[in-house]
Amino acid sequence: MDRWEMFIDFFLIAGMSFLAFLILVLIKSKVHFSKTILNIFFINAFFFLLYYYSYLHKIRITGGIAILFGHGVGYLLGPSFLYLVKSLVFSKEKILRPYLKSLIPFTIVFVLCNIPLCIAMTTDYLDSYHKVYITLEIPFNILENFFIIYYIFKTLQFLNRLRISIQENYANLSSQNLQWYKHFIIGFLIIVIIDSLLSVYELFFTVDLWNIGTIIAFMLFFLYLYLGYKGLYQSQILIPSFLLDQLDETKSTLNESNLVTDQNTQKEKTIVRQLDSLKPQEIEKLKRKLEYLLKEDKVYLNEDLNLTQLSEYMNISNKKLSELLNHYLNTSFYDLINDYRINTIKERLENGDAEKFTIISIAYDAGFKSKASFYRIFKQKEGISPSCYNKKFQQVS
């Protein structure tokens, strides 16, 4: 065994050991359903590494086991991408049935391909089946990759809708920010595209499958490390029920079909808002109450303030407050609260507070939770960084 193979051997053993430890910790601990789905990715990575370890050492039994639980997993991981995100906002009872339904293609592949291939690899039976499968392996792999890509784009669409809903309820997005997950699935998409291109290349040219598999194994392992680091600490995202209804694809599809089928009444196509029943004077009263809470009580200084808490201060439902912001003030909760925070920081900078305190401490006092989100929002709204704004104001004064 040369040095390269020794390094690969060490990497595979270390990787499998780490993943096995992670899997056992998640299985033994009582965790949220999202962590159960997360564990599927770690289990997949374990069997992926086990397959290449078996290939390197020509071990038929472990290779067969790896094939049994690690082959055709694109049909498992594709839906798992989508339902991992959904599990952060929906209850287990809400998503379990559609999640299991989406795994029907994987079940078919497991029964018709994985079990026979496992038997063929570990015994002398079904050898003819194995030979036939080898001729179809590359088209099968390409089809599997297209399946994953389909679910990746569905997940990206859901993430975009979820981001909008989160901004309707939160001003600080540090614990609700799923940008990391978007990076993960885009990274996975890149790996899938590379694997698909190599599979197409294999149709016309002979390539060393071991080298290709090693590269893909390295890429997937480090991507799963990123997923584990971020995913294990991702908390449940609490969103008001009326915003969850907007995210519920089943409900929205049902509503759309009802509107299309019943075309006799135009009223059914009109969205009924709770504030429509109020008089203009009552709407103005709500606006003044909101302005008082922000300008006098300065509720925006609370870093954990969300839509529901603010609605409780106003003695109205969170849905009514959302309608007030969106349809009568032409803003969102996220923009409104952060506008007040940025204006407070600008006022303090203009008063020379930056000479006594750091800019980031001023930002924390104004209600921001993290340095990164503060700098991003400030630059987004003012066009320059906080430090540049402070220097610019000092030069003017």
From TrEMBL:
<feature type="domain" description="HTH araC/xylS-type">
    <location>
        <begin position="284"/>
        <end position="392"/>
    </location>
</feature>
<dbReference type="InterPro" id="IPR009057">
    <property type="entry name" value="Homeodomain-like_sf"/>
</dbReference>
<keyword id="KW-1133">Transmembrane helix</keyword>
<dbReference type="InterPro" id="IPR018060">
    <property type="entry name" value="HTH_AraC"/>
</dbReference>
<keyword id="KW-0812">Transmembrane</keyword>
<feature type="transmembrane region" description="Helical">
    <location>
        <begin position="106"/>
        <end position="126"/>
    </location>
</feature>
<keyword id="KW-0805">Transcription regulation</keyword>
<keyword id="KW-0804">Transcription</keyword>
<feature type="transmembrane region" description="Helical">
    <location>
        <begin position="36"/>
        <end position="55"/>
    </location>
</feature>
<feature type="transmembrane region" description="Helical">
    <location>
        <begin position="210"/>
        <end position="229"/>
    </location>
</feature>
<dbReference type="GO" id="GO:0003700">
    <property type="term" value="F:DNA-binding transcription factor activity"/>
</dbReference>
<protein>
    <submittedName>
        <fullName>Helix-turn-helix domain-containing protein</fullName>
    </submittedName>
</protein>
<feature type="transmembrane region" description="Helical">
    <location>
        <begin position="61"/>
        <end position="85"/>
    </location>
</feature>
<feature type="transmembrane region" description="Helical">
    <location>
        <begin position="132"/>
        <end position="153"/>
    </location>
</feature>
<keyword id="KW-0238">DNA-binding</keyword>
<keyword id="KW-0472">Membrane</keyword>
<dbReference type="GO" id="GO:0043565">
    <property type="term" value="F:sequence-specific DNA binding"/>
</dbReference>
<feature type="transmembrane region" description="Helical">
    <location>
        <begin position="184"/>
        <end position="204"/>
    </location>
</feature>
<dbReference type="InterPro" id="IPR018062">
    <property type="entry name" value="HTH_AraC-typ_CS"/>
</dbReference>
<feature type="transmembrane region" description="Helical">
    <location>
        <begin position="6"/>
        <end position="27"/>
    </location>
</feature>
<dbReference type="Pfam" id="PF12833">
    <property type="entry name" value="HTH_18"/>
</dbReference>
